[in-house]
Amino acid sequence: MPPAAQPDLPLSPHGEIDSMLSRKFGKEVANYFSGSPLNRVAFLRTDHTFLTQALHHPSTTFILFKDLNPLLKDPATLATVPYSTVKPLVGENPYLTPEAEQIAAYNSSTYIPTLIFLGLDPAPPSPLTYKSHSGAPVFALDVTPRAHLTDASNNLISSLTSQSLSFSTGRHNLTLPPSAAALYASARHLLDWNTRNPFCAQCGSPTLSTNAGWKRTCPPSDTAFQTPRPSCVSRGAISNICFPRTDPTVIMAVISASGDKILLGRQNRWPAHWYSTLAGFLEPAESVEEAVRREVWEESGVRVGRVVVHSTQPWPYPANLMIGAVGQALPDGEAVDLGNDPELEDARWFELAEVREALRVGTSGLGEEAGPGYKEGGLRLPPRTAIAHQLLDAVVNGGFLAGVVKI
Amino acid sequence: MPPAAQPDLPLSPHGEIDSMLSRKFGKEVANYFSGSPLNRVAFLRTDHTFLTQALHHPSTTFILFKDLNPLLKDPATLATVPYSTVKPLVGENPYLTPEAEQIAAYNSSTYIPTLIFLGLDPAPPSPLTYKSHSGAPVFALDVTPRAHLTDASNNLISSLTSQSLSFSTGRHNLTLPPSAAALYASARHLLDWNTRNPFCAQCGSPTLSTNAGWKRTCPPSDTAFQTPRPSCVSRGAISNICFPRTDPTVIMAVISASGDKILLGRQNRWPAHWYSTLAGFLEPAESVEEAVRREVWEESGVRVGRVVVHSTQPWPYPANLMIGAVGQALPDGEAVDLGNDPELEDARWFELAEVREALRVGTSGLGEEAGPGYKEGGLRLPPRTAIAHQLLDAVVNGGFLAGVVKI
Predict the structure, then answer these.
(1) CATH second-level architecture of A247-396?
(2) Higher pLDDT residue, A38 or B308?
(3) Tell me, what's the pLDDT at A400?
(4) Chain B closest CA to A394's CA: distance in Å?
(5) A201:B196 CB<8 A
(6) How far does the CA of residue B361 sit from the closest CA of chain A (Å)?
(7) Where in chain B is the domain with CATH 3.90.79.10?
(8) What's the pLDDT tens digit per position in A1-37?
(9) Start-to-end Cα distance in chain B
């Protein structure tokens, strides 16, 4: 089995050989939304014999989504249901035939709800064992009422909500612990990607969810139509458009050349006094360091020299890999100029002490009140679950640059 | 202007404040395909007044592609041409009207060759100046013969090839110096993305290249058809499917727990004795460290503990961001097992001395002969332009872990 999953401590390091590398590189930061407890057994996603057993095993659970919002017991707990509950939507066995046969029999007029095999949970007793792998299978299912399954979905939803379960009404209401957040993040990312890509970007034809939800295939024929489908190069070769998209994004705590200030910015839709680290999408043919320098210059006019990667965070809104870095301004590049890209309302340098105090009393989600110690007019910052927070904490409290610059 | 571009030294660090951070974190490695000399001025991609001036300025150059292969003077030099050469394909001014008007007037039956504004080159004399920015504009143009421009493209190609210019016949023939390689990488990545995404993945309708080649928009109407287009959520909100895709990929030199061996693998289609570091796509809801641990376990059975990011490399075949890391096996996790994912033909541990010798005499591109000092049967490794090579070099020669583990 693969390396042990994270315990439910989003900021704890991976354990066993810490002492060897952490002295040189610092401890690993496992950000919120990472740390899934599941073994993905990615190579079994095309094995219909395995998937059939996984679907029907007594240890199997399903997490449900409606319009990308998860079913909850309460804001801190994902609800799980057994196969019998979802059978009216899923059917007896969508994995009955090998994938190649499903592709050959494709009919675009038949709605199939998106079902994703997320992996095997090693923890529960009496798990499924398949070849050398064992664990309790976990699936995610889209139960949004659609097409011929509208009534079945509505019935399922009514039955669930009568049991005091409810679908989240937005991401800011969720307070999932880290391992549940990681499960949710993988499911939401994949459901969103399937929902956003029902057509082939190469030829414009409708596509079929395959590989247990991890691929979309452009079938060569469609029994719903007499006319042949256009030819498509995505069928003859591996094409990235068939696989889930993840957008690399850089986010950076920029310190001044002498290390005594931090650059933060704000958008005009944010609450008053709320700032964060700068961020933006990495572009084609850029290294992470180049993307950091370009984004900081575009948004603030500040020119960055050295860049060091701190940690990464999967961010499922909808599909980002946040690559967190610490950058340092060039001595003659600290002047703020908002005249390039009008994305930010403000960007300016803050004293380390002000950032340290804001991390102590002024952090919250964007829609929430600041904490009890916050004084009106003080700097406000993102919560602990955001990598922006971790980057700032690493600089002002964690000694990320200790011994190198005077912070 | 933004931070100075890299000089033509793919492995040199960015300069000015090296002394402060490199003592702690090591020098920055700028891998091949990064280090573009251009200022992208991304925020001007929607400014049709700027684009009009950029298209027609005397300092402007175009690099040309046919079937994604660049026009070359020789294998080490990209050919550039002026506006007058490409005018038969580009027309008088494709940026004449604001983008909103072009979208409103969309006609899917009119073929428009993909034209990409890559950025401003700060080096040449007599550059274009626009607001506070100046440089010589650089564009990339797809001249592959198509639709009503087939004859014009063929004429252009004939004229160019009669001047001893030729299109590359494949990536392994290219020996571009780093700054030209970075230009090529950005152009190839964007041209490939435009070519691979002529239809909207959300609604299946044809799309229009916008933002000077950096976006594809799903127009609300199409004058080529009487029937209305389907509604599409990509029109009402920002959707990532409209923007270039870059796939984060992890690639890792894995050292043994005691630091005296390195794990390498090979695919069966590679030349005999040729090995490389393991690699694979990062999946949704994974941190870089998690992706490294999963991929290494899937492909080799080895279980990795600590993971440290080393450097990143844009890789334009077609659209990867290679995230290079050094990982360390857990003391009880070093057994090789190829039984999970059948992707590799072999994976095994190599002594550091063998890897060091192979870096000295056994490196080459996949299609090339090994160097003169290579003895048949010895280990072969990727060339200096590959991040795999840089990772191995960092471990066995660069002292990446010096003082921490005994290498």
Answers:
(1) Alpha-Beta Complex (3.90)
(2) A38
(3) 64
(4) 15
(5) yes
(6) 28
(7) 247-396
(8) 444 433 332 222 333 334 444 444 556 788 999 999 9
(9) 42
pLDDT at A369 over 70: yes
Instruction: Kindly indicate whether the ipTM for this predicted assembly is greater than 0.90, answering yes or no.
Output: yes
Nearest to B210 by CA among B200, A344, A394, B310: B200
Distances in Å between the Cα of A256 and the Cα atoms of A335, A348, A387, A395, B148 are 10, 11, 20, 12, 55
Compute the mean pLDDT over every residue in chain A, rounded to the nearest whole number: 90
Contact residues, chain B, for A2 at CB < 8 Å: 293-294, 297-298, 303
pLDDT at residue A26 in the model: 54
To which residue do tokens 């450097």 refer? B311
Report residue B405 as tokens.
């583990």
Map residue A90 onto helix, strand or coil: helix
Average pLDDT over residues B12-25: 39
Q: Could B404 and A21 be called an inter-chain contact, meaning their C-beta atoms sit closer than 8 Å?
A: yes
Chain B CB contacts of A33 under 8 Å are: 285
DSSP string, B166-231: EE-S-GGG----HHHHHHHHHHHHHHHHHHH-SB-TTT--B-EEEGGGTEEE--S--TT-SSPPPP
pLDDT in tens, B86-116: 999 999 999 999 999 999 999 999 999 999 9
Amino acid at A96: L
What is the per-residue pLDDT for B171?
86
Q: Could B303 and A2 be called an inter-chain contact, meaning their C-beta atoms sit closer than 8 Å? A: yes
CB-based contact A128:A51 (threshold 8 Å) = no
**Greatest CA separation for chain B:** 72
Residues contacting residue B227 through CB under 8 Å, at least 6 positions apart: none
Do B2 and A293 lie within an 8 Å CB cutoff? yes
Question: SS3 for B67?
Answer: coil
